[in-house]
């Protein structure tokens, strides 16, 4: 019971404490909504607390939106408290409930009565809606859109443009989505669309996203010296358009209605000195200021009514008017811009109230367009606007002297050339030209009048010193004459140094040594080198104090060789100084080497070709490359760096077929190449030729040997046919009868067969010493020779021979016979037939005896022996009359010894047994017998050759 | 392309032509107008990021029926002429509102919009000639937001969308009706 009492007491104490804090809940809470700004204003009355707890809930779902303690002081006049809150969600989206309580530290009052801000999602507003609608926000804003679906429908999706968004349910019919908008919208705004459960668009809203204005560069100036005109730069694009969102400007508080789009101008009737420009749009405003004195901001208007009071050939005057009288006292600076078809220039003039200027250095017969603008000379600010252009044409004047040149095709024929006068040079329409040829030697002249379309005239000159004059004519008069002395024709082939010149990208740079005789400068002409007839010649003239130039032309083409000739020009002559060749761009030759042909030379092949024609070279030929072509593969054989060399020999090739390709190359590379084939033949002819050469060489050697043998015949004779010493007969045959001093060879014995019919008159076989004294008595030498060589057979007389054995006993027979006898064995080898030389030892045979019958006879030589031992050798060579042909035993046999006489009366005298000798077997030439000469045979000739006899 | 077509149409209009050619000319104009309207509608959808199935709610703005079997060809043409006048009025109002909302722009959409307005005016002249009466060719619509039911910026866009759909519909109707009329008159002339 007691415990119950304490409990009730404690509870009563706490209630008493609460009531004792004195915090009364806020009274008369009121809600005011600014839906466009999504702001909620909460006001209440409470006289004591300054701190309050505010709680905001979404009414339908009782979700707390805000529960915050705020400090709010009471308005002194009304005694009310007001607290503002900006809702992130449009206030139309759903109903909000607001309640407030006072707080003093930890003490709080009771909550106020709940106040409800009704949303538009109440059942009595059944249509679909979306909020906020038509709002303008800056780029980067966080935006929450809510969709209130139609009563009875289900929510589907929320779309930002075509992007489906995540939604949050705020109430039964309301769904919201929040996003950060990072891109400005297009002029019609960005759509946010809500669809129902069938994905049918039910409602939507538009948001305009952009920037606040940001103008710059406000400048105010005067044109009429009274009013002001301010200009500024629009600056950043706001992306906001239309009447409600575009930027509006005010200048010193006055609307600038004309400031639209890019025309940022605003003015006022009077100069104020200070100006403030305010630019404003739904997202904000921007302020610009400017200040200046009028005299410092004068920008004249454009001059008007331009005229040309006076126009001449070389100058004209231009006048204009000002729209404002104040300009008459203004010191002006004006620019006059004149434009012709070839040039545009600006000249500046100054003066008070300037209204007229004189234009100088104009060109005759030229159409000009002029325009004028001015500024304040004192405290110059800006140039005024250009006036409207005024066109006028200057008057004509006589033309300039044409630029002439003479091109000589040959020594006497040439052309006078001149360049067409440009509009700037003609000073009017050229009506024609006059060409005058002067001949100082003859003191005469020839004049030709040519139409305006002619720019050359042929000349036929015989006088080297002739001069040409060309004048041009237009309606205003005749030009000054252009003179030139005709140069001498000098083709490349003459003694002229020709250099190469390279194109440097813009032209051909030429330089030369200054010439003292170039009183009127230099002329460089050029033409296509390969051109032969009616060549297009261009030229340029260089002042006398220049020694270089760059030749430029639009007519230079790649791959074409040009010849540049430098002439020194004077009043007396035009002399060629130097010549160059050059290519604007070298190309590979357009044609392969012509006439490529192979020529076999044994195992070598010589390739020959011709030079590529100049027009096809298309560059300086640097050389040739020779390739061996194997299928499509090229093997380099030689690189000929001498362009003049047009042959090459490929050596040491084996038999077979070959294809050779020769390519010419320039700095740009090789041409396509010319290919030729050759099949190497065996060297038959060469072998035959070599054989013939070898035979010829052998013949020569033999001849030389023969000559040598002839010259050394004595030695040869001694070596091969040693002289058999003649038998030395004692002065008295009868007295000095004795034994034959024969030193028989150990292997050759002579057996003397005794013949009963021995004729003592017969010559005996005798030993004959050699004619060469050196060999005489040289026993040692003799020992080398067969002993039989030292003997001659005895001469057999015809009579004795005829008397002896019949002819059947020829040498062979005799030999056989002797062999049969077995008594003697005599062998003769190479026995000489020089019996006649021993004629004086021979008896005097009867000639009739030599001319015996036609049967076999021993050698007839004895018969030819002269009867008269005193007779000359010619006589000895006379064959005996009536001698007959046929084999004849050697008649040179002689009796060598008396002892042999008696035994040698037979026909086989001298060869008692057998005789073996080729000489014996030689046939006797019948014709020779019949002639006056002795028989001649090869052996005889050879013998004579060796013996030195003719 | 549009300029070339404009020249062709102007040439057609200036040419004196027989009855058959007049119907043919009107039919051709209606066909071109339908193409222009379709193009303009596509540009609008593209500009507003509207899906093709985003069909705005609401009834027809120009509610005339040409499908009644009791209507003669002349009556159909007369109804058509009347509908086209209303369409022209709606288009003029559309242009006015858009220029007020966005300023005077010079994009592809604005060019197509002008082309449709000009061609629609030509078609009205052609149908007037066909009717051989003193039909008015001026726009038959007053810009009234309350009447049009335009509420808010998005509402104005939906109204614009509806107007463009209406233009496309009536241009198509005109093309078909005039083509039928042209075929009928051509057949009659051949019979004669």
From TrEMBL, chain A:
Residues 926-935 have a biased composition (Basic and acidic residues). Residues 911-920 have a biased composition (Polar residues). Residues 302-397, 398-493 form the Fibronectin type-III domain. Residues 809-821 have a biased composition (Low complexity). InterPro entries: FN3_dom, FN3_sf, Ig-like_fold, LIF-R-like_Ig-like, LIFR_D2, Type1_Cytokine_Rcpt_Type2. Its main location: membrane. Residues 769-785 have a biased composition (Acidic residues). It is a single-pass type I membrane protein. Pfam families: LIF-R_Ig-like, LIFR_D2, LIFR_D4. One of its GO terms (cellular component) is plasma membrane. It is found in: Membrane. Keywords: Glycoprotein, Membrane, Receptor, Repeat, Signal, Transmembrane, Transmembrane helix. Residues 765-826, 845-950 are annotated as: Disordered. Residues 1-20 form the signal peptide. The chain crosses the membrane at residues 685-710. Gene3D superfamilies: Immunoglobulins. Belongs to the type I cytokine receptor family. Type 2 subfamily. This is Fibronectin type-III domain-containing protein. It comes from Coregonus suidteri.
From TrEMBL, chain B:
This is Ciliary neurotrophic factor. It comes from Coregonus suidteri. GO terms for molecular function: ciliary neurotrophic factor receptor binding. Gene3D superfamilies: 1.20.1250.10. One of its GO terms (biological process) is ciliary neurotrophic factor-mediated signaling pathway.
């Amino acid at each position: 019971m007691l415990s119950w009492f304490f409990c009730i007491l404690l509870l009563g104490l706490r209630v008493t404490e609460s009531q004792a804090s004195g915090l009364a809940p806020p009274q008369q809470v009121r809600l005011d909504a600014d839906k466009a700004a999504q702001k909620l204003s909460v006001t209440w009355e409470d006289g004591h607390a300054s701190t309050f707890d505010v709680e905001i809930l979404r009414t339908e779902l009782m979700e707390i939106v805000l529960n915050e303690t705020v400090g709010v002081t009471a308005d002194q006049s009304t005694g009310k408290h007001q607290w503002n809150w900006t809702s992130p969600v449009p206030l139309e989206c759903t109903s909000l409930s607001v309640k407030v309580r006072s707080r003093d530290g930890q003490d709080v009052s009771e909550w106020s009565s709940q106040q409800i801000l009704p949303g538009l999602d109440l059942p009595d507003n059944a249509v679909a809606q979306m909020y906020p609608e038509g709002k303008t926000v800056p780029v980067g804003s966080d935006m929450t859109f809510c969709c209130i679906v139609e009563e009875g429908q289900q929510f589907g999706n929320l779309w930002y443009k075509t992007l489906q968004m995540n939604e949050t349910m705020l109430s039964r019919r309301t769904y919201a989505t929040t996003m950060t908008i990072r891109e400005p919208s297009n002029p019609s705004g960005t759509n946010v669309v809500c669809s129902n459960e069938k994905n049918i668009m039910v409602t939507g809203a538009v948001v305009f996203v952009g920037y606040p204005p940001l103008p710059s560069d406000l400048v105010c100036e005067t044109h009429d010296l009274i009013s002001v005109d301010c200009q500024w730069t629009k600056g950043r694009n706001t992306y906001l358009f239309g009447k409600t969102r575009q930027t509006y400007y005010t200048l010193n508080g006055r609307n600038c209605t004309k400031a639209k789009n890019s025309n940022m101008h605003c003015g006022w009737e009077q100069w104020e000195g200070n100006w403030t420009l305010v630019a404003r749009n739904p997202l904000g405003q921007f302020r610009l200021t400017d200040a200046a004195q009028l005299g410092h901001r004068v920008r004249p208007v454009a001059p008007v009514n331009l005229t040309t009071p006076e126009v001449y050939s070389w100058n004209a005057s231009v006048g204009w008017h000002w729209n404002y009288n104040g300009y008459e006292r203004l010191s002006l600076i004006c620019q006059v811009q004149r434009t012709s078809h070839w040039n545009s220039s600006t000249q500046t003039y100054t003066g008070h109230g300037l209204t007229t200027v004189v234009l100088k250095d104009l060109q005759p017969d030229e159409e000009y367009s002029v325009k004028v603008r001015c500024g304040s000379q004192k405290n110059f600010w800006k140039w005024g606007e250009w006036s409207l252009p005024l066109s006028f044409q200057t008057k004509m004047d006589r033309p300039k002297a044409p630029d002439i040149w003479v091109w000589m095709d040959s020594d006497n024929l040439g052309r006078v050339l001149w360049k067409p006068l440009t509009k700037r040079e003609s000073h009017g329409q050229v009506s024609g030209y006059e060409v005058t040829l002067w001949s100082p030697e003859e003191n005469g002249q020839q004049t030709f009048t040519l139409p305006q379309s002619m720019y050359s005239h042929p000349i036929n000159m015989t006088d080297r010193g002739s001069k040409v004059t060309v004048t041009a004519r237009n309606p205003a008069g005749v030009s000054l004459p252009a003179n030139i002395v005709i140069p001498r024709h000098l083709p490349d082939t003459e003694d002229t140094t020709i250099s190469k010149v390279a194109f440097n990208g813009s032209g051909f740079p030429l330089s030369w040594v200054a010439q003292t005789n170039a009183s009127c400068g230099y002329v460089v002409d050029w033409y296509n080198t390969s051109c032969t007839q009616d060549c297009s010649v261009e030229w340029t003239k260089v002042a006398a104090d220049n020694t270089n130039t760059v030749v430029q032309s639009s007519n230079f083409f790649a791959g074409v060789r040009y010849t540049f000739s430098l002439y020194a020009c004077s009043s007396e002559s035009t002399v060629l100084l130097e010549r160059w060749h050059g290519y604007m761009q070298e190309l590979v030759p357009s044609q392969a080497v012509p006439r490529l042909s192979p020529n076999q030379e044994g195992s070598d092949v010589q390739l020959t070709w011709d030079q590529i024609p100049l027009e096809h070279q298309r560059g300086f030929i640097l050389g040739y490359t020779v390739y061996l072509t194997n299928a499509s593969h090229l093997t380099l054989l030689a690189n000929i760096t001498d362009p003049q060399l047009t042959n090459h020999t490929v050596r040491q090739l084996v038999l077979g077929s070959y294809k050779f390709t020769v390519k010419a190359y320039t700095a740009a590379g090789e041409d396509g190449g010319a290919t030729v084939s050759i099949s190497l033949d065996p060297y038959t002819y060469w072998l035959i030729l070599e054989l013939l050469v070898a035979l010829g060489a052998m013949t020569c050697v033999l001849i030389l040997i023969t000559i040598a043998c002839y010259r050394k015949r004595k030695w040869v004779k001694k070596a091969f046919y040693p002289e058999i010493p003649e038998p030395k007969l004692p002065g008295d045959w009868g007295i000095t009868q004795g034994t034959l001093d024969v030193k028989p060879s150990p292997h050759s014995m002579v057996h003397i067969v005794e013949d009963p019919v021995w004729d003592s008159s017969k010559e005996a076989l005798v030993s004959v010493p050699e004619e060469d004294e050196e060999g005489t008595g040289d026993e040692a030498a003799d020992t080398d020779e067969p002993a039989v060589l030292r003997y001659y057979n005895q001469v057999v007389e015809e009579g004795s021979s005829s008397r002896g054995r019949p002819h059947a006993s020829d040498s062979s027979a005799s030999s056989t016979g002797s062999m049969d006898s077995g008594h003697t064995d005599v062998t003769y080898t190479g026995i000489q037939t020089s019996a006649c030389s021993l004629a004086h030892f021979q008896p005097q045979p009867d000639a009739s005896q030599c001319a015996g019958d036609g049967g076999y006879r021993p050698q007839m030589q004895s018969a030819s022996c002269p009867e008269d031992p005193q007779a000359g050798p010619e006589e000895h060579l006379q064959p005996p009359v009536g001698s007959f042909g046929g084999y004849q035993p050697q008649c040179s046999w002689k009796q060598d010894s008396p002892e042999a006489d008696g035994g040698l009366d037979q026909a086989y005298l001298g060869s008692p047994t057998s005789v073996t000798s080729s000489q014996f077997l030689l046939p006797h030439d019948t014709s020779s017998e019949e002639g006056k000469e002795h028989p001649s045979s090869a052996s005889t000739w050879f013998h004579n050759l060796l013996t030195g006899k003719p | 392309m549009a300029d070339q077509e404009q020249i062709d149409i102007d040439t057609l209009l200036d040419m004196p032509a027989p009855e058959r050619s007049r119907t043919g000319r009107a039919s051709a104009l209606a066909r071109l107008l339908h193409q222009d309207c379709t193009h303009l509608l596509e540009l609008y959808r593209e500009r507003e990021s509207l899906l093709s199935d985003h069909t705005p709610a609401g009834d027809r703005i120009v509610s005339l029926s040409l499908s009644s079997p009791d209507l003669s060809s002349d009556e159909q043409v007369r109804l058509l002429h009347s509908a086209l006048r209303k369409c022209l009025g709606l288009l003029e109002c559309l242009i006015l509102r858009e220029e007020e909302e966005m300023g005077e722009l010079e994009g592809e959409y604005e060019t197509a919009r002008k082309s449709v307005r000009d061609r629609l005016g030509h078609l009205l002249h052609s149908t007037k000639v066909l009717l051989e009466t003193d039909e008015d060719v001026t726009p038959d619509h007053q810009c009234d937001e309350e009447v049009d039911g335009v509420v808010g910026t998005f509402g104005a866009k939906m109204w614009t969308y509806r107007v463009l759909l209406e233009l496309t519909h009536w241009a198509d109707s005109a093309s078909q009706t005039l083509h039928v009329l042209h075929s009928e008159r051509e057949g009659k002339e051949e019979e004669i």
